[in-house]
Amino acid sequence: MRITRILALTAGAAVAALALAGCNSGTPGSDSSESSGALWEVATDVSIPDSPTFERIQSAGKVVIGVKEDQPGLGYLDPVTGERSGFDIDIARWMAASLGYDEDQIEYKAVASANREQAIINGDVDYYVGTYSITDSRKQQVSFAGPYFVTGQGLLVAADNDSITGEDSLTADDTVCSATGSTSIQRIKDETPAQTKEYDTYSQCVEDLKSGQVDAVTTDEAILIGYAAQDPDNLKVVGDVFSEERYGIGLTLGDTALAQFFDDVLTDGGDTWQAIFEKNLGASGVTATQPDVDPVS
Ligand code: GLU
What we know:
Blueprint: H1 2-9, H2 11-21, H3 32-39, H4 52-60, E1 63-67, E2 70-71, E3 75-77, E4 84-85, H5 87-99, E5 106-110, H6 116-122, E6 127-128, E7 142-151, E8 153-158, E9 175-179, H7 183-191, E10 195-199, H8 202-210, E11 216-220, H9 221-230, E12 235-238, E13 245-252, H10 256-268, H11 270-280
Parallel strand pairs: 1-5, 1-6, 9-10, 9-11
Antiparallel strand pairs: 2-3, 3-4, 6-13, 7-13, 8-11, 8-12
Helix pairs in contact: 2-9
Bound molecules: glutamic acid (GLU).
């Protein structure tokens, strides 16, 4: 829990620094085409025997990646510039490059939390990178590479809210908003007396928080820090994190060849991981180290 603890302790500084960095404004530094070349190389002559997903990618001549696009700092689509940015997006691009595919051969598909397993099962996406926690129940339906990041669940409240200070402070009078199908909404239902409200996306919850229709938004602190940074005068992240969320790359169940391939890229690419982290989350003041990958089963 060391990493999540650090995240919790530095949340305030993170929000301030991210606000300064203008993480959601499509600043030049977040333009992948300018910076990706320096962070990783596009591989050539890649072969992954026994990976049905890689076979599909090769015959399509492109990689289809499932992502989030309303989570600044992690997976974000700038509505003005059309640029995608964030830690998850760069991890997704790095994995595509390791397969031999550059930005212009990537098709991104936004897939909400509740629809990730089905999108992977249907083959609508070749793989998924979007704050996707590795869990035993999801492992019944999809396989995971990674983890590539560890964070923990937190709470986002109005800046003038002094009554909600952490998970234990939630009461039956509080309404907490989160995304359908997430580990976050489930944990609030399982562990607290609070009422819940659900949407497809966390950004809808944030709108409700700003208009006073819910008392808190809950999900991974790494996500909440990005929202607080967009509106630091009105929003704040409170309390210690109360779970461990280990982000994996979701892929077709049983494609162990691709899972092992991605794991090797992650394990051998410590410097690239660090550069991607610094670029997207480093300015926030959050410190984290790359987690070891799980053995592929
Ligand atoms: N990491 C959690 C999950 O996978 C919450 C964030 C999300 O919904 O993407 O359920």
